[in-house]
Design brief:
The protein has 469 residues and is α/β, with parallel strands linked by helices. The chain contains 16 helices and 24 strands. It has three domains: 2-235, Metallo-beta-lactamase, Chain A (4-Layer Sandwich); 245-352, 3-Layer(aba) Sandwich (Oxidized Rhodanese, domain 1), CATH 3.40.250.10; 362-460, Rhodanese-like domain (Oxidized Rhodanese, domain 1, 3-Layer(aba) Sandwich).
């Protein structure tokens, strides 16, 4: 028996390859099928099953494409409804894979069809669970994504409580927990950076698995402080329920070199968004007017999903040479299939054609501290609310990047904003979006709050108000 976790850091997502006696199963695959096909070929195995723990919201799964290429059977848990052929497992159903067994444990709560798969080894011992978004390391799945009709997030949280207590916490402590996500995913609140653990450790350390926790306490703690889900989540669920186009067709359409004139025509006359995926330092020095920066070396796909509302938006892009296919692939992971190509020769080709190029003012933290001490500057902090509340520059305004599109009315075009995040990536994204909307009095603070803290700028933290008696 072989188990391999295939972890994709930019999505904080874990897929799994299980093999026994020449038969393999894939759990929660990403959009691109090539990595799983290569692993199966290397092991001399045939992919028999493609197990899905639920209809994913934060990425588009490659299950349908992988099934077409391998003949493997797609499996979902009870209650799943989709527009393609799949096996709807019953609670407790056993699947044979070589000398091992995989048992279906229906664990609703994150979604109604959410299912945990229990791996039983060659000796009949309960070896591991693939818990999807039901149980994370340090957390559990958010219960607000499958609300519909009269069903509330509190109802789903109650289901999750029962699923954890009756299906998962009854398993032996030495069972390994393999979740679908780790720290950085928006599918939970408090996930650990660890990507697997023993169930016994989670029973001791995961706040949601406290033995003395009542159902009411669980519901309150799990639902408290939930931020709205990213806007692309619902669209990705819809794609995962339909037969989304295969990755090969997406790559063929999007991994195309465009000359300057064609690139410009697509942007100016066909409504294509210009996406710049280079490092923020390069964008600051020179970029195409009205282009949006989201660097490939950050949490690229989730930020694209959070900030570009329409998955059908035509996109043309700039990329470092040799990374063009990577950009198209990572866009497709969150459902952006309408990529039309990239600028051949990049920004240098644009300059050589004597097209307009813009730059962005960016200053180090020491210069920011000097300007701040002189008074009367406006500081925009684009970190998440929790980061801001933990500590921030005095008098700074918090406009989280996640929701910047909805907060444009809070920004005054006549003011000059000094914009920072934690390290310098998100602030450039925010600045590029604001520039594209006609805000030009913007100053990026390079190095972000990490560098600001090394200066003498006064900082403060959020203090909950107390009730006076």
């Amino acid at each position: 028996m072989k188990i391999e976790q295939i972890y994709t850091g930019c999505l904080a997502q874990g897929a799994y390859f299980i093999e026994s006696e020449g038969e393999a199963a894939i759990i929660d695959p990403l959009r691109e099928s090539a990595p799983y096909l290569k692993k199966a070929e290397k092991e001399g195995a045939t992919i028999k099953y493609i197990f899905e723990t639920h209809f994913h919201a934060d990425f588009v799964s490659g299950h349908v494409d992988l099934a077409h290429k391998t003949g493997g059977k797609v499996v979902y848990g009870p209650g799943a409804k989709a527009a393609y052929d799949f096996h709807e497992a019953t609670d407790g159903e056993i699947f044979e894979l070589g000398n091992v067994k995989i048992k279906t444990l229906h664990t609703p709560g994150h979604t109604l069809e959410s299912t945990t798969y229990l791996l039983i080894d060659e000796e009949g011992k309960e070896h591991a669970i693939f818990s999807g978004d039901t149980l994370f390391i340090g957390d559990v799945g958010r219960p607000d994504l499958a609300q519909k009709g009269a069903l509330t997030q509190e109802d789903l949280a109650g289901m999750l409580y029962e699923s954890l207590r009756n299906k998962i916490m009854t398993l032996p402590d030495n069972v390994i927990v393999y979740p679908a996500h780790g720290a950085g995913s928006a599918c939970g609140k408090n996930m650990s950076k660890e990507t697997f653990d023993l169930l016994g450790n989670q029973k001791q350390n995961n706040y949601a698995l406290r033995a003395d926790m009542s159902k009411e306490e669980f519901i309150k703690e799990v639902t408290d402080g939930l931020l709205p889900p990213p806007q692309y989540f619902a669209q990705n669920v819809a794609m995962n329920k339909s037969a989304a186009v295969g990755i090969d067709a997406v790559l063929e359409k999007g991994n195309v070199a465009l000359d300057v004139d064609t690139f410009e025509a697509m942007a100016n006359h066909e409504g294509a968004l210009v996406l710049d995926t280079r490092h923020q330092r390069e964008f600051i020095k020179a970029h195409i007017p009205n282009s949006i920066f989201i660097g490939i070396d950050g949490s690229f796909a989730p930020w694209v999903g959070a900030l570009i509302p329409d998955l059908q938006q035509p996109i043309v892009f700039l990329a470092d040479e040799g990374r063009e296919e990577e950009v198209v692939t990572r866009l497709s992971r969150v459902g952006y299939d309408n990529t039309l190509g990239y600028l051949k020769g990049g920004i240098e080709a644009w300059k050589a054609a004597e097209k307009e190029v813009q730059d962005m003012e960016s200053i180090p933290a020491a210069e920011f501290a000097s300007r701040y001490s002189n008074g009367n500057i406006h500081v925009m902090d684009v970190r998440k609310p929790g980061e801001f509340e933990a500590e921030h520059v005095e008098d700074a305004e918090n406009i989280p990047l996640d929701y910047i599109n909805e907060q444009m009315d809070k920004i005054d075009a006549d003011k000059t904003y000094h914009i920072h995040c934690a390290g310098g990536y998100r602030s450039v994204i925010a600045s590029s979006i604001l520039k594209s909307r006609g805000f030009h009095k913007l100053v990026d603070v390079a190095g972000g709050y990490k560098d600001i803290k090394t200066t003498n700028i006064p900082v403060t933290n959020f203090v909950c108000p107390t009730t006076q008696k």
